[in-house]
Amino acid sequence: MPTVAIPIRVRRHTVGALNFCKADENDSWTADEMTLLETLTEQLGNALESAQLYQDTQQRAAREQLTSQVTARMRETLNVDTVLQTAVREMRQVLGLHDITIRLEDTDGDSTERLRQAEQSKPDEEVLS
To answer: What is the rounded distance in angstroms from the CA atom of residue 117 to the CA atom of residue 35?
Structure first.
């Protein structure tokens, strides 16, 4: 059976191939058929690229929305401990984390553990150090 494989390209990178096979062993591919197959394969590559770009844009928009929500909640107060507790609570909830530790630099440059939400804590319980 006459077969032909045409590479699927997205931005000049080969991401796969389309294999075509004719039913009749004696039937060879014409120039017009090859042009049509190449054009259709090129359009498939364009459609795949568009779908990937759309998916990437949706993921980026979702991340930006989460970042905006968490940031807005952290800015609701001017109290440092409350801001830290809110940050830990929101990040834990959004990211599904068990343990978050925030370390802040003291004015003398020493790194100290300011707030920790440990795995053994209740889900919304913050432990201050």
So the answer is: 62
Q: Which helix (H) or strand (E) holds 41?
A: helix 31-74
Look at the chain and count its residues.
129
Query: Residues near 99 by Cβ (< 8 Å), separated by ≥ 6?
Result: 116, 117, 118, 119
pTM of the prediction? Answer: 0.55
| Distance from C-alpha of 6 to C-alpha of 41, rounded to nearest angstrom | 7
pLDDT digits (tens, 9 = 90+) for 20-57: 998 888 889 999 999 999 999 999 999 999 999 999 99
Yes or no: say if 34 and 18 are a contact pair by the CB < 8 Å rule: no
- CB under 8 Å to 47, separation ≥6 — which residues? none
Task: State the DSSP string of 42-101.
Answer: HHHHHHHHHHHHHHHHHHHHHHHHHHHHHHHHHTT---HHHHHHHHHHHHHHHHT-S-EE
Tokens of 83: 């801001």
